[in-house]
Amino acid sequence: MKNKLILLTLTLWATSCVKDLDRVPFIDVTSATVYNDPANYRKILAKVYAGLAVSGQQGPAGKPDISGIDEGFSTYLRQYWKAQELTTDEAVIGWNDGSLPDYHYMRWTSGNEFIAAMYNRLYYQITLCNEFIRETTDAKLASRNITGDNAIKAYRAETRFMRALSYYHALDMFGSVPFVTEEDAVGSFLPRQASRIELFNYVESELKAIENELVDPKKNEYGRADKAAAWALLAKLYLNAEVYTGMGRYNDAVTYCNKIISSNAYTLDAEYQHLFLADNDKSTETIFSVTFDGTRTKTWGGMTFLVHAPVGGNMNPAVYGINGGWGGLRTTPQFVGLFPDVTGKTDRRAIFHTDGQKLDIDEIPTFTDGYAIGKYKNVTRAGVKGSDTEGNFPDNDFPLFRLADVYLTYAEAVLRGGTGGSTAQALTYINALRNRAFKGTTGNITATQLTLDFILAERGRELYWEGHRRTDLIRYKKFVSGYNWAWKGGIKAGRDVSAHLALFPIPASDIVANPNLKQNTGY
What we know:
Elements: H1 31-36, H2 40-50, H3 76-85, E1 92-93, H4 102-105, H5 113-134, H6 138-143, H7 150-173, E2 177-179, E3 192-194, H8 196-210, H9 227-239, H10 241-245, H11 250-262, E4 286-290, H12 302-308, E5 329-330, H13 333-336, E6 352-353, E7 372-373, E8 398-402, H14 403-415, H15 423-438, H16 452-463, H17 469-475, H18 508-513
Antiparallel strand pairs: 1-5, 2-3, 4-8, 6-7
């Protein structure tokens, strides 16, 4: 059994009566009674973490957190992954659900229901975090005679990290967005819009404020945030600072990579694919993950989507520890071209299924057009299927931050002029990844080969399908123009698209509802 924080559903009820507004609600469970019991704080924290993974209050269907979209489609991780991957060379999906094809064709509008679901997920998650942070001030705890409980203070710091994570995703995907914190009264006002620079500064300040309140690297319960998770998010924030604010912060990116590396809490796993199996909670490399459990964290999104959707054609679902494939996800020939071969015999990160698949994509809906990817498997290192005996829900966790990304971030930041590191050390880190990939030094590169373009390609080879690609291509100025892939812009050869697509639109429904908001340029 995985030692992880499992979602314990805790619904907070409130009632009202028009004829007797002063009456205490008849129902026993209210926010007041919940927060009066110190034992409930851990349960609420579990809901905060589960907000990245599950879709609602009971299993894979029923009592959804957000409306307006099929519940299985609605999960945070599933929507985040689609926005970050389907818009790039790394992934296509063969389904024609609503406006889903618009992601890869890069023709989305402010009415796209999948973009709206991502946006709504962000603000549902931020609202969860704000409420918990609001209810765990020293004054609130003292009013309930809860004093000296260091665990609750630690939960509060972790929740601030989770809020910063969602605001980081909002700043990355949407730019200038509505801004609310625990200081704002619920439902009493229309949120103002924070600029991208203001939001950057807020995320930075929050992460620095809680840095010393979080436990040391690898000292927390698996799946919960620690200092290294905050450092990793700061490193990512600083690596992309030039996009977000117009000013490079590469020195700071190097600084926070060094903090993680020098903690000596993480080492590269010996086998690349072990990072993506059903027992990847054993990883020595993962810094922070979104956790799943096949019997206790059931959802049609998250890792259920990422394990089932890439399986189709003549692929054997049993090999992937599932009862059937959904025949959706593949990759483009341009991404395949990043690897020296597609067999995985040289670079073992090339986990492609080519049998019965064409390299070229003539028709996106045809599953056999485009190579399939078998990176995520619901089997353990020993080859044992995950805990769900029916084969629906996998045990795999999603690695949001891991050491390999830190190595790559360090190398890129140094090459972009960041101080506090060296190109010699960057080369050592890159060759450590390639030693694992090539099972020896045959894939090692020299100092002259270590260029920014090489690092972008290496990020693709190492981190594909982990939710980084859109952000990476934007940072390299290759997302909307300068690099094309199959069906980008709606044509088979690919083409440049409008620069405004580097940001997603604020959903039209929110623009109409809140006059304080200004739409992103081009929508």
